[in-house]
Design goal:
By secondary structure, the protein is mostly helical. Helices cover about 80% and strands about 0% of the residues. It has one domain.
């Protein structure tokens, strides 16, 4: 029977609470303040992305994963499909951007993977509880900028992280330092792309890059087999 770990429920509720607070604050926020906040979040996001990318142990693996991922993403038109779902919002494009930004920041990174595996294998949800506090703060800011899409992300956090915990015994290999480094590195490049979009330097369809995260462990495994 599929049972969701308590820490995952707390994480989802933290995003829900933060996003709700952000929506309330966002309505009363002046446009000038909103613009400055966008810039602050954008710069911080790029900084986080660079830090994640520098953890990469093999840039060739990351490059191949990102290249293969974005090809699949473009063919599937992932960003456009998310925007279509976002018709529940006044601005479907804004919904898609907010959704992809929140999902990437909340579910990509070592804290999510290692935390989920530990919660599943040894019933230790400490890392996810810590992550919940960080996600609460981030969701306030993101919801004030992007609106309803960040609120919807709380459901994705519950489902995806819940599945990661449930299948943790099959994901132990991802906690290997090399696998985790390249997975984090690929995620870092996506996070940098989010920062570039937040700063309005270029409107990158970040959602189309998400399949790279599925390709990274596969490319990493193939690379290891070839090098032996």
């Amino acid at each position: 029977m599929f049972k969701i770990h308590a820490s995952v429920i707390v994480n989802s509720l933290a995003v829900l609470a933060g996003a709700t607070l952000g929506l309330i604050l966002g309505k009363s926020m002046p446009d000038t303040l909103r613009k400055v906040l966008f810039q602050a979040v954008g710069l911080t996001t790029i900084g986080i992305g660079i830090k994640m990318t520098l953890e990469t142990s093999d840039f060739i693996v990351v490059l191949l994963s990102v290249a293969m991922g974005v090809i699949v993403g473009e063919l599937l038109k992932i960003e456009d499909r998310i925007a279509a779902v976002g018709k529940i919002s006044k601005d479907s494009s804004k919904f898609a951007k907010g959704f992809v930004t929140a999902v990437t920041l909340f579910l990509v990174g070592p804290m999510t993977i290692v935390g989920s595996v530990r919660a599943g294998l040894v019933k230790d949800g400490t890392l996810i509880y810590i992550k919940s506090v960080l996600d609460f703060i981030s969701s306030i800011i993101l919801a004030s900028l992007y609106g309803l899409s960040v609120l919807v992300t709380s459901i994705v956090v519950l489902l995806v992280q819940g599945l990661l915990v449930a299948f943790s015994s099959q994901l132990v290999f991802l906690t290997d330092k090399a696998y985790l480094a390249n997975f984090t590195g690929a995620g870092g490049l996506i996070v940098i792309a989010i920062g570039i979009r937040l700063l309005e330097i270029k409107d990158i369809k970040v959602g189309n890059f998400l399949p790279a995260l599925f390709f990274t462990p596969v490319v990493d495994l193939v690379a290891r087999m070839i090098s032996k």
